[in-house]
Amino acid sequence: MTALKLDKFGGQLPAWDTRLLPEGQADYSINCYLYAGVLTGWRQPKLLRALKDTTAKYAYRIPNNVTRNTLITADDCYWLEFPDPDTTVMHSPVVQDQFQRYYFASPTDVPKYNTYQRIADGQHAWNLGVPSSGCTPGVTVAGGGDTIPVGFPNLDVSNIGNQYVPGHHITLVPIVPSGSMIIESISFNPQASGGLNFMGVVYSDLNGKPYEMLGATAATAADLSLTTQTAVFTNGVSVISNTTYWLGIMTDASFYLPTANNATQGMGYPATFSNGAPDPLNAGSVATTPTFQIWGNLVGASIFEARGYVYTWVTEYDEEGPPSDPVVVNGWSNAVWTITLFQPEPENLGNDYVDPADGLVKQAKRNITKTRIYRTISNQAGMGTYFLVAEIPVSQGVYVDTNPDDQVALNEQMVSLYWFPPPEDLQEILAFPNGIAVGFRSNEIWFSEAYRPHAWPPGYVITTEFPIVGLGVAAQSIVACTQGTPYLVNGINPASMALTKINLTEPCLHRGSIVATDTAVLYISQNGLIQISQSGAGLNTTEGWITREKWQKLTPHYKVRAIKHASSYFAFGSIDGGAIRDGFTVELSTEDKTSFTIWPQAGGHRLGFNILTSPNGFNIENVLIDVWTGIGMLIQNGGIYQYDFTDQNPVIVPYLWRSKTYQQQARRNFEALRIWFEVPGTTPPQLPTRDTSFPQLVLGSNQYGIVRIYVDGDIWTTREIRTSGELLRIFSGIKAESWQFELEGRVVISNMQVATSVKELSQV
């Protein structure tokens, strides 16, 4: 006689003939959750929250930064909602981003971003990127020259008039050169009644006092018919920048000399004129004096040069854009360079503005707050580099540049030459290692500057042969799924990414079908589930156990949305192009995949392929993963639903599982069966009496389950499952070679036993 035991339930292997299926594999399975080997259904997803915008088709959750509660049920988190199901959101890759920015892109809107605080405050997002000005800066040059006075050539309003200077005396003032220069001469404006001889002297500084003589001119007789007297060095005295020197006049007779101000910055020292200038000075004899009108005439810092000026705009979050077109102007390096700047359009200044086109008040698109001014400084080879001159408020329209080259050369160089905003039709924005963001449009793959998601240099773009459907990131690789062959992108520098064409003609049907794992990217093609590994190996993972014709018949090919969920490729879509209600799962684990190429080993779960129907009875707008918890979510019926695996007593979705066809060696009649099961606490109570209708084609709302027996492909009988282990009789009167058993229910079935007699059943 014959007895059967059905346990270790597995999914479908659609490529296999139903008579040749391994034990435990299904001929047909709907909504079956087979991870534990028992037969049960997927848990019913729970309503997590209602959408604020009931038409939204994508949502992204942001935990509260204060409570740091990342639980999906936290009631203090924030949600971003978008109307386009193909929207992607990226958390800022910037190290210790104080603004906690989030970046998003979709096919129906320009790329945008927002800060955590603005999201928490309910404020709108900004357009991503900073534009360059279409206007060159205005530059005017005034003054300057080959020789510049350094010291105290001018009298200010605080000067206290002429002061007496004794004869045989050295009168000194301090100077600090702004560059490497040469003192050619020293000038002063003496008032004397008799003859006056003088010489110019230069001393070094020691602890704030003149010390060692560096140079002296020949003795010169004053021409008192001239206001200014000048002592000229035969060989100029070299001085360097940011170092204190003392220069002055040594005289043989007393005179009066104007003071430059009311400070006492000068120094005096008694010295016999005929002996020449002493070297060094005795610190104890150096006395403080008023700041006299004495100055040196220096050359070396003032160069007639060609300067290039540009300016960039910077947002409140220190995001810098590309520079304006340059302007090149000639002038003396020590001249006054006045820079006139242009402001951004009102829509980019961060505040609501009146649109001149229609007179309506509109939200700002960007929040530019600062302007950075750069100018060229040439090296010894004559190559010019832009260095930062100043950062000023964007509202300031004029800047006066008197900064010497050696000071500006210590500032930062301009690095934003190609930091253009992303294209307005950029689709997707995904995080790639090393702080790089990646997106695409048409057949172009775009990359951001590392750790600067607002800057997308056009020079980084690489192109594919076919239009791109979507991207996936697996480890250190990017897979571009196209309308033709897929491509692999590798690299660590956005400026030097390597593109490899994968010789696998499997076009991607839908962007929503792309799922990235830690080692590979998967997507739906017309022929199966395609896997591209991070090494570039391409494979139709399902072709060995789902034939192409079965794949076309069983899986949706319209509007597919998928995630990796509970170790499976979990997808919903539309088979006929209508509402999204048709789903399936395909097991992704390596261990289970091996069992499809050989006869499955006993004890393997063999999850295989399973059909899903839309839970809760609603159309599905999207299938999502919460990035903070890894929990699967559905958008349907104006809300977000979650698969809550923490619930130990969930509501079970009714399932249907049909066994392989058991072909007997002779025609027999199976007469009895037993089914062992457990009843979840959320299962609806049974009706008080057994349903004896025949054939029962639909599971009742108050039934644990039903079992259908098929003989030679036709339904023979139906029995209701009411008590675990209960003996159920099968209608007699028929003998057949082919038998199939179909279980439909909402309880957890561990095994089913069938025999040709009750006595034999007890021995299973």
Highest-level CATH class of the domain at 147-299 = Mainly Beta
Main sheet attributes: strand count, strand direction, barrel closure: 7 strands, antiparallel
The helix/strand class is: mainly beta
| Helical coverage, percent range | under 10%
**Mind telling me the C-alpha Rg?**
43 Å
What's the N-to-C terminus distance?
A: 12 Å
Tell me what portion of residues adopts beta-strand conformation: 35-45%
Supply the CATH architecture of the domain at 147-299: Sandwich
Q: If you average the pLDDT, what whole number results?
A: 92
Uncertain parts: 592-605
The backbone outline, from C-alpha atoms, is rod-shaped
Question: Count the strands?
Answer: 58
The helix tally amounts to 5
* CATH topology title of the domain at 147-299: Jelly Rolls
